């Protein structure tokens, strides 16, 4: 897909596209369209959804929960055809900006222990391992908990 990516806050019009990305990227661990709709439309007040568009098509999304001084990246996904193009990085940068603007001083996330690509992506963005959660995923896989201290509002932490 051509055209520069654009990251923006998700709207109700994006719910179906986000749910489709959930299914495409997360399979059995995907969130339902109803849960996505609740988060996007404000039913979950701590949750922020972002989408990445290219040529007017939603090709990625991120969901983060921001409560007081802690932000948690709950989801980040990019359609396979658009991976390794900087979209996930753009989404992560915007999550960091939002979290910092809302007063969070750290960003946490869980990633599958066996997902070397994602772990490398987060390591390159400055995340460090802080814990492990055994049998966290439906298939029994371990989650690695990563953390990123958030700095000044200029977004330089990512």
Automatic annotation (TrEMBL):
<dbReference type="Pfam" id="PF00583">
    <property type="entry name" value="Acetyltransf_1"/>
</dbReference>
<dbReference type="InterPro" id="IPR006464">
    <property type="entry name" value="AcTrfase_RimI/Ard1"/>
</dbReference>
<protein>
    <submittedName>
        <fullName>Ribosomal protein S18-alanine N-acetyltransferase</fullName>
    </submittedName>
</protein>
<keyword id="KW-0012">Acyltransferase</keyword>
<dbReference type="InterPro" id="IPR000182">
    <property type="entry name" value="GNAT_dom"/>
</dbReference>
<dbReference type="GO" id="GO:0008080">
    <property type="term" value="F:N-acetyltransferase activity"/>
</dbReference>
<dbReference type="GO" id="GO:0005840">
    <property type="term" value="C:ribosome"/>
</dbReference>
<feature type="domain" description="N-acetyltransferase">
    <location>
        <begin position="5"/>
        <end position="151"/>
    </location>
</feature>
<keyword id="KW-0808">Transferase</keyword>
<keyword id="KW-0689">Ribosomal protein</keyword>
<keyword id="KW-0687">Ribonucleoprotein</keyword>
<dbReference type="InterPro" id="IPR016181">
    <property type="entry name" value="Acyl_CoA_acyltransferase"/>
</dbReference>
<dbReference type="InterPro" id="IPR050832">
    <property type="entry name" value="Bact_Acetyltransf"/>
</dbReference>
């Amino acid at each position: 897909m051509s055209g520069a990516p654009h990251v923006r806050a998700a709207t109700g019009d994006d719910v179906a596209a986000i749910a489709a990305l959930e299914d495409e990227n997360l399979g059995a661990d995907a969130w339902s369209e109803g849960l996505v709709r609740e988060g996007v439309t404000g039913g979950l007040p701590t949750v922020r959804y972002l989408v990445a568009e290219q040529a007017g098509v939603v090709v990625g999304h991120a969901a983060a929960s921001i409560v007081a001084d802690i932000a948690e990246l709950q989801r980040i996904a990019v359609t396979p055809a658009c991976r390794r193009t900087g979209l996930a990085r753009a989404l992560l940068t915007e999550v960091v900006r939002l979290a910092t603007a809302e007063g969070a001083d750290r960003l946490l996330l869980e990633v599958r222990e066996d997902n070397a690509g994602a772990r490398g992506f987060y390591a390159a963005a400055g995340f460090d391992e802080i814990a492990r959660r055994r049998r966290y995923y439906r298939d029994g896989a371990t989650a690695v908990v990563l953390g990123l201290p958030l700095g000044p509002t200029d977004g330089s932490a990512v």
